[in-house]
């Protein structure tokens, strides 16, 4: 795996509510995360299109044996090396012990499980390291397309070792927006925003990473999501220079007692982000 350089965060970051890190503070964590992601990716590839067992963990939400195997691999490898860190995963019961930890790993073993189960390469392994409530290290990996998005706080966002920047598309007119297949049917986004083009992709983390990389102008969603869906993407988007908030324009607070978020809006450019927030407000008020 190509590893981007880790940049230092200046001490002035603390003046803007950011954690101050010195060069090398996250180097060992980055190496550990890279190893863990490589092993998790190998597991995903073994199960992909191999008819893995699957079941509903709750109505409408499936899990496969690959989710469990990847979660187990990541948990064992990372917590063995970092036994004092907290852990929050979609596939493990949250016992609340993370609230006592300064450092917490937020993990989605497979984001886009339904795509994975259907043999569609639109899923990712998403991992973020949180410190004092904000992500400082992030990885979103698609082990089939071999795309590895990552970021460190103050160190920029990267795809396979190349720095990424988002689209500068300023308006809804002519924008390329991402949405989920379910919302495309339920919300009828194309009818509500006919001047934009819409693409559906299975994994929310993957969609957000693609916005960070400039392949699409932005994303709109009024579906609720959880910390493990977005923690890594939040850092990657911000380090790339993109904008993200919940569906009402409020900043996203991670690793709190409540893990759910009311929708999402992300865009490469501030003017497009503002326009999308305004459009969603108009849609909500017209109901």
Q: Could you describe the 3D structure shown?
A:
- With 287 residues, the protein is an alpha+beta fold.
- It has 2 domains: 11-163, Fructose-1,6-Bisphosphatase, subunit A, domain 1 (Fructose-1,6-Bisphosphatase, Chain A, domain 1, 2-Layer Sandwich); 176-285, D-Maltodextrin-Binding Protein, domain 2 (3-Layer(aba) Sandwich), CATH 3.40.190.80.
- The chain is 32% helix and 28% strand.
- It contains 8 helices and 14 strands.
- It has helices spanning 27-47, 65-81, 113-117, 181-186, 189-192, 204-212, 227-240, 270-285; strands spanning 54-58, 61-64, 86-89, 103-111, 124-131, 134-142, 147-152, 157-159, 162-163, 176-179, 197-200, 218-226, 243-246, 260-267.
- It has a 7-stranded mixed β-sheet with strand order 3-4-5-6-7-8-9, with helices on both faces. Strands 11-10-12-14-13 form a 5-stranded mixed β-sheet, sandwiched between helices. It has a two-stranded antiparallel ribbon with strand order 1-2.
- A hairpin with a 2-residue loop joins strand 1 and strand 2 (61-64).
- Helix 1 (27-47) runs antiparallel to helix 2 (65-81) and helix 6 runs parallel beside helix 7.
- The chain starts with 26 loop residues before the first helix and ends with a helix.
